[in-house]
Structure formats: structure tokens, C-alpha cells
Design a protein that fits this description.
Length: 208
């Protein structure tokens, strides 16, 4: 038996998956927080399904910690870049990216809620589809210091990671095969993300 064959029999496949999977999940969620086009919720739910079917201890806990930490660091980095853009005469592409995803009506609502409820709005914004950036922009306009934003964003990221991990656990528990659970969890997270937009369009068409 070759050394490679011996190594493949002594190293559990789950160990290899974890060595590759957790850093990949971290980088993808971090990138999704900075560039909000990556479906980070679906990534966390899919990773939770895989972890649910693994026998290695603490797999689900590691998915939770990895996702929450990556989301928090991504939010903090984006907010810091946004603050730099607010202080610059010409702004920045990061600030422009936040503004482009925070329409005026959503920004006005976020500002009103932020003024009324403070840090609690950050937690809710992380759980609402397309709610994170309008509230982040409202915090920038209100000139919240980075430390204050971080205090509110930490529980928001923890709640976000728990929510999407529970979706993954649900998908993993309903299907015997991991890939079936991943498909179900991703489909559910996509449905959750697009449902508010579809509802607003439907109401808008009825109003006409």
C-alpha cells in the first residue's frame, strides 16, 4: 500500500472536509458581507446541513462560530470603509455600493427606526432580507462611532447565524441524504430573501 493510500485510510474524510470547509465558509461569508451579492444565508444553511450529518463533535458549533465571526468582521470592515467615504469629499466606491442598495424610502424608514429603537434595530436588520445596508447607512448618516456600531452588530450577527443554522438543521433533519437537505435549505433561504420584494411588487401593482 502506498503512503498516499495509507494516509487516506488513516485520515477521516470528515476531517478533510472540515479543514477545507470552515475556512471556505469563513471567506465566503466575509466576502458576502463586504460585497452583498453572495447568498451568505444559503451558505450557512447548507453548511449546517452538512454538519448535521457529520459524526465529528462540535461541527454545528464550529459552523455557527465561523459564520458569526465572518459576518461580524465583514460588517465592521464595511462600516469602517463607509465612515472613510463619509469623511472624504469624493466619497468612496464602498459608500456608493451601500447607497446603491439603500433606496431613499428604505433609508428614511431605517433612520426613523434607528432614532426610536437604537441598537435593537441592528439585530432586526440582520434578520430581514435586504435590511442590513439601509440600517448601516442610517448609522453612517447618524455618525455612529465604530465602537457603538460594533456593540449592536455583534448580537445581530449571532442572531443571524443562529437563524440560518436552524434552517439548515431543519433541512438536515427532514432528509436522509445531506445533498437533499442542502437543496431544501438553500431553496428556503432563497424564498425568504425574495419574498419581501415580491410582496412589495404585488402590493404596488394592486395599488395601481
Amino acid at each position: 500500500m502506498s503512503w498516499l493510500g495509507a494516509a487516506s485510510t488513516t485520515v477521516p474524510p470528515e476531517t478533510t472536509q472540515q479543514a477545507i470547509g470552515y475556512p471556505t465558509l469563513f471567506l465566503l461569508v466575509l466576502a458576502g458581507a463586504l460585497v452583498p451579492v453572495v447568498p451568505t444565508g444559503a451558505l450557512v444553511s447548507g453548511a449546517a446541513v452538512v454538519a448535521f450529518h457529520q459524526t465529528a463533535p462540535f461541527s454545528l458549533a464550529l459552523v455557527f462560530l465561523t459564520a458569526a465571526l465572518a459576518a461580524f468582521l465583514g460588517d465592521i470592515a464595511l462600516y469602517w470603509l463607509g465612515r472613510r467615504g463619509m469623511k472624504s469629499k469624493n466619497g468612496s466606491r464602498w459608500l456608493q455600493a451601500i447607497r446603491s442598495r439603500a433606496p431613499e424610502d428604505r433609508l428614511a424608514q431605517a433612520q426613523d427606526k434607528l432614532a426610536a429603537h437604537g441598537v435593537a434595530v441592528l439585530v432586526l436588520s440582520r434578520l430581514m432580507p435586504a435590511g442590513r445596508l439601509p440600517v448601516m447607512l442610517a448609522c453612517l448618516v447618524a455618525e455612529w462611532p465604530l465602537r457603538r456600531f460594533a456593540r449592536g452588530d455583534l448580537p445581530a450577527c449571532l442572531a443571524w447565524a443562529v437563524t440560518y443554522q436552524l434552517i439548515g438543521i431543519l433541512g438536515g433533519s427532514l432528509f436522509p441524504e445531506p445533498w437533499e437537505g442542502v437543496v431544501a435549505a438553500v431553496a428556503l433561504t432563497v424564498l425568504i430573501s425574495v419574498a419581501p420584494g415580491l410582496w412589495r411588487r404585488l402590493r404596488g401593482s394592486e395599488a395601481r
